[in-house]
């Protein structure tokens, strides 16, 4: 059955791509009183949305892209919710060919920010606006109120902002949406958000693993611990759902649900993108990197099988039962400390990109819009906003007076957990790497001087002297070892 074309200019905005995220976002707009045009490459999905949710608000379905665009009021706003990459490019081109100067195309998918910057430049040259917008919160967030991170021009946000802010999550009456910055800023911030999410999840998993292996606790017992932790500084969505997952039983076997899940974690690429971009920009995001590699290791089945049968543990038997409660509290503190480091590293990366691309991202605002709707929503984020309100040019989040004080309370416990894990053969890559970063960033001197000496020896890569940091020097290693100043 064909869908009749709606009247021209009747809809406030439109959403194309009626998979779960797209249809939920459209329903969210409709529930706030907006007239929403909807479209999908396969008309059956559009019809399904109308059949199942047509009473949620005022929808205007279209079978063709031409009818979809025609149904939008000017300046038109068309939101794309399709698979990232080539499918998104195809939809953008189809929309752009039908639109007029001043119209706005919005990509709310998980696109690579490099693609967003390319698309924005191309669409701008055609007289249109292109907005790359991060949307976090999953299917439920899209429907009930996500965290939204739109980039693009200030002019486009004047049209989009009121609509996006109205459908976003709200915390203390403040919308979890703000204009992030030009071109790819929105998708870059969403990428880093996802990288921090990787770190947060890995740290929680390591805390669980320690209680399981070192203390022999059952999954439901550990779930109760996380339930209590959610009443502390760790109060967050991820801690909350962890408690729920660990206390859930598999209906088929009656076993703890977590025990019937294969220990191989998947990833969709945003963690890897975060690490790649951090490496290119020279920003150490060790917590995010180790969390990403931990997922890769979990899927390295031939390697794990080979290692399991050949590599000795040679662990030290360290009784811990008599210190059970103290040990659990130490894990909590190590988790809190490592979490602070991971966020600090993520915000360093956002600042670096903002400086490189001239985005002028408001760091405090990023923490503020993550307080609700998104996967990493947490009470902890209020403190990050406050830190950047105290000092907008804060060079390191951990150096803020609040965070410096908080992390100082955890260091002894953090070291205990990492050393215990090493001695007992329990892998804690995220706990360990964040502690190493903490010690590295606070160190008065690092061994990079030796590395520079080595680089100059084999590749004439030059070095700076402590008594002339502005000068560039090279030693003639294969000759008389005299030193030459290069500038």
Lay out the secondary structure.
Blueprint (H helix, E strand, L loop, with lengths): L12 E4 L3 H12 L3 E5 L3 H11 L4 E5 L2 H6 L6 E4 L5 H13 L5 E4 L5 H13 L3 E8 L1 H7 L2 E4 L3 H14 L2 E2 L2 E2 L9 H31 L3 H11 L7 H10 L23 H12 L4 H13 L2 H10 L13 H34 L5 H7 L10 H11 L10 H8 L2 H13 L5 H14 L5 H12 L3 E3 L2 E8 L7 E3 L2
Parallel strand pairs: 1-2, 1-4, 2-3, 4-5, 5-6
Antiparallel strand pairs: 6-7, 8-9, 10-11, 11-12
Please give a structural write-up:
There is one protein chain. With 487 residues, the protein is an alpha/beta fold. The chain has 20 helices and 12 strands. The protein has helices at 20-31, 43-53, 65-70, 86-98, 113-125, 138-144, 154-167, 185-215, 219-229, 237-246, 270-281, 286-298, 301-310, 324-357, 363-369, 380-390, 401-408, 411-423, 429-442, 448-459, and strands at 13-16, 35-39, 58-62, 77-80, 104-107, 129-136, 147-150, 170-171, 174-175, 463-465, 468-475, 483-485. The strands form 3 sheets. A 7-stranded mixed sheet has the order 3-2-1-4-5-6-7, sandwiched between helices. It has a 3-stranded antiparallel sheet with strand order 10-11-12. Strand 5, helix 5 (113-125) and strand 6 (129-136) form a beta-alpha-beta unit. Helix 8 crosses helix 11, helix 8 runs antiparallel to helix 14 (324-357) and helix 12 (286-298) packs antiparallel against helix 19. It is globular.
């Amino acid at each position: 059955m064909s869908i009749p074309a709606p009247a021209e200019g009747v809809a406030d905005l439109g959403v194309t791509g009626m998979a779960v995220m797209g249809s939920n976002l459209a329903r969210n707009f409709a529930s706030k009183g907006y007239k929403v045009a909807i479209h999908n490459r396969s008309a059956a999905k559009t019809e399904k949305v109308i059949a199942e949710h047509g009473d949620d608000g005022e929808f205007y379905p279209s079978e063709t892209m031409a009818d979809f665009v025609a149904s939008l009021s000017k300046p038109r706003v068309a939101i794309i919710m399709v698979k990232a990459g080539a499918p998104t490019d195809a939809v953008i081109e189809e929309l752009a060919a039908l639109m007029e100067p001043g119209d706005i195309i919005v990509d709310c998918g998980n696109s690579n920010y490099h693609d967003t910057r390319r698309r924005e430049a191309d669409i701008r040259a055609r007289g249109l606006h292109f907005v790359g917008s991060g949307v976090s919160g999953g299917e439920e967030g899209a429907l009930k109120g996500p965290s939204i991170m739109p980039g693009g021009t200030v002019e486009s946000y004047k049209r989009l902002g009121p609509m996006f802010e109205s459908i976003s999550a709200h915390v203390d009456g403040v919308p979890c949406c703000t204009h992030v910055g030009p071109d790819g800023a929105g998708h870059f911030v969403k990428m880093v958000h996802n990288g921090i999410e990787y770190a947060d999840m890995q740290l929680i998993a390591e805390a669980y693993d320690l209680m399981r292996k070192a203390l022999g606790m059952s999954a439901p017992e550990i779930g109760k611990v996380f339930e209590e932790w959610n009443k502390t500084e760790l109060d967050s969505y991820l801690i909350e759902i962890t408690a729920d997952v660990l206390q859930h039983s598999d209906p088929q076997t009656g076993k703890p649900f977590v025990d019937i899940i294969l220990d191989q974690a998947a990833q969709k690429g945003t963690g890897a993108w975060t690490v790649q971009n951090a490496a290119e920009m020279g920003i150490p995001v060790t917590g995010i990197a180790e969390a990403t590699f931990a997922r890769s290791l979990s899927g390295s089945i031939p390697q794990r099988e080979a290692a399991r049968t050949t590599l000795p543990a040679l662990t030290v038997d360290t009784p811990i039962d008599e210190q059970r409660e103290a040990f659990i509290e130490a894990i909590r503190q190590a988790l809190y400390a490592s979490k602070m480091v991971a966020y600090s590293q993520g915000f360093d990366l956002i600042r670096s990109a903002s400086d490189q691309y001239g985005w002028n991202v408001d760091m405090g605002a990023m923490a503020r819009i993550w307080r609700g709707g998104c996967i990493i929503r947490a009470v902890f984020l209020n403190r990050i906003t406050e830190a950047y309100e105290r000092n907008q040019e804060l060079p390191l989040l951990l150096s803020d007076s609040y965070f410096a004080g908080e992390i100082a309370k955890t260091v002894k416990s953090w070291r205990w957990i990492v050393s215990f894990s090493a001695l007992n053969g329990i892998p804690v890559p995220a706990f360990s790497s964040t502690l190493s970063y903490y010690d590295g960033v606070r160190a008065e001197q690092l061994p990079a001087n030796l590395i520079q000496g080595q680089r100059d020896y084999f590749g004439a890569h030059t070095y700076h002297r402590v008594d002339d940091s502005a000068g560039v020097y090279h030693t003639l290693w294969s000759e008389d070892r005299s030193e030459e100043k290069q500038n």
